[in-house]
Amino acid sequence: MSDSTERLFTSVDLGGLRLPNRVVMAPMSRVRSTPEGLATAAMAAYYAQRASAGLIVTEGVHPNRVGQSNPLTPGLHTDEQTASWRQVTTAVHANGGRIFAQLMHGGRISHPDTTGLQPVGPSAVAARDSRVFTPSGPQQVPVPRALTTEEAGAQAAAFAHAARRAVAAGFDGVELHGANGYLIAQFLSSSANLRTDRYGGPVSGRIRFAVEAATAAAAAIGPQRVGIRLSPGAGLWDAHDTEIPELYGALLAELDPLGLAYLHLEATTDEQTLLGLRRAWSGPLIVNPSAPSAPVPAGPKSAGHWLGLGADLISFGRAFLANPDLVERLRIGLPLAEADPATFYEGGDTGYLTYTPYRY
Q1: Contact 164, 221 (CB under 8 A)
Q2: Whole-structure pTM over 0.85, yes or no?
Q3: Which phi-psi region, left, alpha or beta, contains residue 201 (left: φ > 0; alpha: ψ -120 to 50)?
Q4: Membrane spanning segments where (predicted)?
Q5: Residue 103: Cβ within 10 Å count
Q6: Is residue 344 classed as helix, strand or coil in its secondary structure?
Q7: CB 222 within 8 A of CB 171
Q8: Is the Cα dihedral 275, 244, 231, 251 positive or negative?
Q9: Residue 145 pLDDT > 60, yes or no?
Q10: Mean pLDDT calculated for residue range 49-64
């Protein structure tokens, strides 16, 4: 094991939260909540099984009703939803873990059959060739309603309201989902954002929504409890970036002085651009080495590579699904079980609570 890879199992400070290792469980949608967006006992068991991670980041949690992307995804905007998460945070903490809630506003990636509301976005532009899950099955995403200037500010503030609820529910912090083509990424995108007001146009306008959301969340619960995830150049859900180094460089120039807990970067653009963003960010950096479309999950080799290039922590997604004891397996070189894609989103305990630690 290289020196860089060995660093994966050393402790690190994250906004005053001491992590025993640098392995992060990346956010992954599992669609196991109730129809009302409540967290369940099965969800508590699932996250508690993985509490040996240095940090767990939950699946995307919608901050308001119009922000829900898919059915059976959890929320943090009602008293009942907030109370339901306490069983999750209590179970993780009882097992010695730390957990952030990922706040995810779907924006235009939603459907009226799911929320009862027309999806909203920066502009009235639908994601091309994109189908979203609904209670009756996959359907083409509709044209969203363009947010007014005042409404855009209110949607940015929704992240702060959900952040307060997250802390009330016992979470150690929140991660703003600014990646993968959802609302924050839609505002960053030059294909999804055709606005001419202060939230659109040049780079300075397109980064405004992300900056306001992060600033509001930091003011609500303290910057040391707020992280943000970005996927430069990913192009997911038809939200395409242009001027990637300039766009994300300008965004980090605004976010860096806030003193956030971390920046979580997906390796979705070229390495030189990512290294430039590392230099632009003075705080802790989490890197997810596997792009969402990568054929294999990240492993020790890619983790060591990015730790050697300046990352502070490494996040693992699919590897955590089938390996609740992933940290131990990576530490001593045990083989990894493979997750069954057929059970990623189908509901029930199979493929959710049925993966076990390594059996010697």
Answers
A1: yes
A2: yes
A3: left
A4: none
A5: 30
A6: coil
A7: no
A8: positive
A9: yes
A10: 98
Calculate the alpha carbon distances from 152 to 38, 155, 221, 269 in Å: 26, 5, 21, 28
Percent of the chain with pLDDT over 90: 93
Report the candidate in 113, 121, 101 with the shortest Cα–Cα distance to residue 237: 121
Alpha-carbon span 210 to 94, nearest angstrom: 34
Question: In this structure, which amino acid lies at residue 352?
Answer: Y
**Active-site residue (options: 46, 47, 182, 262):** 182
What is the Cα 350 distance to its own chain's centre?
A: 24
d(CA 137, CA 115): 14
Q: What counts of helices (H) and strands (E) characterise the chain?
A: 13, 14
CATH 3.20.20.70 for domain 3-343, yes or no, is yes
pLDDT tens digits for range 204-216: 999 999 999 999 9
- In angstroms, rounded to a whole number, what is the distance separating the alpha carbons of residues 265 and 276? 12
The DSSP annotation for 186-203 comes to: HHH-TTT----STTSSSH
Give residue 295's pLDDT. Answer: 41
The helix/strand/coil state of 332 is helix
Arithmetic mean of pLDDT over the chain: 95
What pLDDT score was predicted for residue 4? 72
Q: Is the separation of the CB atoms in 292 and 229 below 8 Å?
A: no
CA dist 8 and 12 (Å) reads 10
Token representation of residue 332: 């001593």
Q: Tell me, what's the pLDDT at 346?
A: 80
User: Is 46 a residue of the active site?
Assistant: no
